[in-house]
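Changelog note: in this version the structure field was regenerated for every chain. One regenerated record is shown below for reference.
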Amino acid sequence: MERNLLQIEQQLVKLFEKLDNLKIERQRRNVQPKFYRNKDLKRLFGVSSNTIIKYRENGILPYTFMGDIYLYPVSEIELLLKRNSTTSVNVRKEGGHNV
């Protein structure tokens, strides 16, 4: 009986170790990437490849590249969005009416 309890305890320890490893692996997968690629920006902002190229060439989008792959730092894109955001409630439409 005591031997069976010891075996069960050992099996439980192994199962808990496996669960911990699965939790760690799941957390790794949920880590936000450090860089966006063109396809990510297209999907996030609903813009075309040409628009991304235009923004990149005009200095609107910060980027780096490896070979022919353009990478956009997530932290800098987020900072750009924060700097350009507005909280104004007095946005005016054409014709001078408040929205």
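Spot check on this record: The mean pLDDT is 82. Strands lie at 35-36, 64-66, 69-73.
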